[in-house]
Amino acid sequence: MQDIYPAGSRRCFACIQWDGRRSYDKETGKIKTDAGAEGWCRMKHGNTRGTHVCEEFSALR
After folding, report:
1. What averages of pLDDT result for each successive group of 10 residues across the chain (61 residues)?
2. Structural domain tally of the chain?
3. What range does the domain containing 32 cover?
């Protein structure tokens, strides 16, 4: 099941450095994803959950 979140959330699913599964609607600024899913973090060089909070967050544009 996927949920919709605001793009400004300081979570991995909203970070440009996270390679997990998601879709981004630039017009509404919303992200559709399973936030509990894991994806590759290019900053930490490892898998992280989409709900993880990171100090090196870079928002999607």
Report:
1. 85 92 89 89 93 86 71
2. 1
3. 3-49
One-character DSSP codes across 18-47: B-SSEEEETTTTEEEE-TTSEEEETTTTEE
Name the nearest CA neighbour of 11 among 29, 36, 28: 36
Confidence (pTM): 0.81
In a domain, 58, yes or no: no
- Say which residue the tokens 């899913």 belong to: 37
The reply to whether 59 falls in a domain is no
The verdict on residue 61 lying in a domain is: no
CB 5 within 8 A of CB 17: no
In a domain, 54, yes or no: no
- Tell whether the torsion through CA atoms of 28, 29, 33 and 34 is positive or negative: negative
Residue 51 corresponds to which tokens in the numbers above?
Answer: 């709900």
